[in-house]
Amino acid sequence: MLARLTAREQQVLRWLAHGKTDREIAGMLGISARTVQKHLQHVYVKLGVENRTAAVMRGLELDPGPAMGRTEIVAGPMSDACQAP
Question: What SUPFAM superfamilies does the annotation carry (predicted)?
């Protein structure tokens, strides 16, 4: 289903998965925030969702790999700042 998205819609969705705002995405892609919103509206329709969170979740379901911004988390020792007192 991600293949139904245009390349630009996929880019917008990937940045959305990284927690970026419309303004941040717009700045990175060299487009206006309004254009980002239009791309997102198309993404919502094509993925059958109603909001940003659902779009990211559906994107991760359809492509759980690096293309959607998901990376492997490697466990390691906690720093002193992360340990409970």
Answer: C-terminal effector domain of the bipartite response regulators (SSF46894)
How far is 21 from 41, CA to CA, in rounded Å?
A: 15
**pLDDT tens digit sequence for 2-55:** 789 999 999 999 999 999 999 999 999 999 999 999 999 999 999 999 999 999
**Alpha carbon distance 32, 9 (integer Å):** 14
Q: How many CB atoms lie within 10 A of CB 40?
A: 19
* Domain ranges, residue 39: 2-67
Q: What gap in Å lies between CA 15 and CA 85, rounded to an integer?
A: 36
Q: What is the DSSP letter of 52?
A: H
Total tally of structural domains belonging to the chain: 1
Single-letter amino acid, residue 60: L
Q: Flag whether 6 is in a domain.
A: yes
